[in-house]
Design a protein that fits this description.
Elements (H helix, E strand, L loop, with lengths): L1 E2 L3 H24 L5 H22 L3 E4 L2 E4 L6 E3 L5 E5 L2 E5 L4 E5 L5 H13 L3 E2 L1
Parallel strand pairs: 5-8
Antiparallel strand pairs: 1-2, 2-3, 3-4, 5-6, 6-7
Helix pairs in contact: 1-2
């Protein structure tokens, strides 16, 4: 099962990318001698565009084959059967095993996907705190 990013978060990355690109272009074309910061703004905009496309095509979390995994570079994964406690606090789910802890940021998850995630977590034999 794939848990997707919130559409609002994805659009925010696009808007920020457009904004930084516009600021960079204005600086490059209005100054006789553009500063290094003008080019830096354009570079930042490309990072936001890359983040936008990554979030648009990708997903935040994967549930399957008895594992839960964060889909990001060096993302953590844990076995669902090893989860001992689940804590819901401050917009996060903290899943703890004997050796690992996985933090899931609820604010980044799409509403439909969040319902699916809650249902899957309720099926676990973990203690809710």
């Amino acid at each position: 099962m794939k848990i997707f990013y919130k559409k609002k978060q994805v659009k925010l990355n696009l808007i920020l990318g457009i904004m930084w690109f516009a600021v960079g272009l204005i600086g490059v074309f209005t100054n006789e001698e553009p500063k290094w910061t003008d080019y830096f703004y354009i570079f930042i905009s490309f990072l936001y565009f890359a983040l936008y496309f990554y979030h648009k095509k990708g997903y935040y979390l994967t549930l399957g084959n008895g594992l839960i995994q964060l889909n990001r570079p060096f993302g953590k994964k844990i076995k669902l059967s090893d989860v001992k406690t689940i804590k819901h606090f401050a917009g996060e789910y903290n899943l703890k095993t004997d050796k690992k802890k996985l933090t899931i940021n609820i604010d980044l998850i799409d509403e439909d996907s969040l319902l699916k995630l809650k249902n899957e977590l309720k099926k676990l034999s973990a203690e809710w705190i």
